[in-house]
Amino acid sequence: MSGPKQRKGSTMTNLAHNLTRTAATHHDGPAILLDGTTVGYRTLDAHSARVAGWLAAQGVGVGDRVAILLPNIPHFAVVYYGVLRAGAVAVPMNPLLKSGEIGYAAGDCGARAILAWGAAMPEARKAAAELGIGCTDVTAEDFTTALAATEPSAEVVDRNTDDVAVLLYASGATGRPKGARLTHGNLGSNTETVARMLGLSAADTVFGGLPFFHVFGQTCGLNAAVLTGACITLLPRFDAAKALEMLSRDEVTVVEGVPTIFLGLLAAADVAGATGATDGLRFCVTGGAAMPVEVLHRFESVFGCPVLEGYGLSETSPVVMFGSLDGPRKPGSIGTPIAGVRVRLIDDEGRDVAEGAVGELAVSGPNVMAGTGTVRRPTRPPSPTAGSAPETSRGATRTASLAAEYRHGLHPLTVGETGAGAARFAGGAGRHGSFED
Q1: Could you give the strand order of the β-sheet that contains 371-372, starting from the edge strand earlier in sequence?
Q2: pLDDT tens column, 225-240
Q3: Cα torsion 55, 57, 63, 65: sign
Q4: How many other β-carbons are positioned within 10 Å of the β-carbon of residue 145?
Q5: How far apart are CA 369 and CA 429, in angstroms?
Q6: Are 211 and 204 in contact (CB under 8 A)?
Q7: What digits encode the pLDDT tens for the residues 65-102?
Q8: Element holding 300 (H helix, E strand)
Q9: Closest CA to 90 of 25, 20, 187
Q10: DSSP character for 352?
Q11: What distance in Å separates the CA atoms of residue 69 and residue 364, rounded to the nearest whole number?
């Protein structure tokens, strides 16, 4: 059986190679912590290989969509990399979704199967039954038994850089959620850039409180940790007191979160009367919403580490702009464009705006999605926007986010608070929690 053909202008890759390479070099180094459970890189790699083999036995092939409804537990990483390893497309969803919402996304993308955890199974089963597809509880004992009896897929299926790796259903400005098609190239390049900017290594432990079904937690947390051999300690549902305890217990070096996480940690520290032993914190990263400057300053004072601000979207894998670890920082700014990414501020006609004027952010670079909607036959009639490309202006993708540029030597872009752009930048505290787009 021949593998996928390399397309002109594309190279062969697969995001899952990051796991196999790290497992080969770090062996039993800790990949994931969840309270008293530790999963090493070699174990994570081996289990993902069995998931890939199990998927193949279920008839899931290259390019097929697999819906994933899991919180931040070790099973997410095992299933996610197993799906990618098999050459299929991961479709992560909020495990709190109702059956109609699961069914819409799974039907729109033509999912071949739904993989969920026990608490999500009642709603997931309803959606699967309506679509006529399989639904499996990957946290159940019978699945563990089936995996143990499955021949692992030792090889990682090669994919082109422009092949879709992940399909994310994020709320748009209008209408129903649209699936953002993120390729192996999109996610691979953004993961590498994030890991390099943060200086992540196997010596780091990353706080895993951002949900992996969201692109922020997926790229900057899970994928960046796996690429570098860092450990990620998981918090399936955010609890500020528990999070504060984890920073000390697991010797966390990097915290990534939305502003509400930092507010929660500050409140927990006030109640506890101390931050705990958090001297190992190197820095924190915030995004997904505008961080109030006073909160940023207070957090840095209480926890004794810098907080770096950034900007991104599901459609950009997600990071577009980021503050500097090495240079001077301007609180309230979303930083400067990351390597390889070009950002313009444009008016309604697509013309560049003057310095200090408010404009819409337009982005171009290797992190920008391939498009929205599905390019395979859905199991339901496609939505009116399915398959539509993002609106562009001179080759740059318009984001609907408003900003103004001020030149103080840092060239920062500060997000405005007006209109649809502000709602989009704020991460749209959607129907299913503050981490939704």
Answers
A1: 134-137, 111-116, 65-69, 89-93, 164-170, 178-183, 371-372
A2: 999 999 999 999 999 9
A3: negative
A4: 10
A5: 22
A6: no
A7: 999 999 999 999 999 999 999 999 999 999 999 999 99
A8: helix 293-303
A9: 187
A10: B
A11: 31
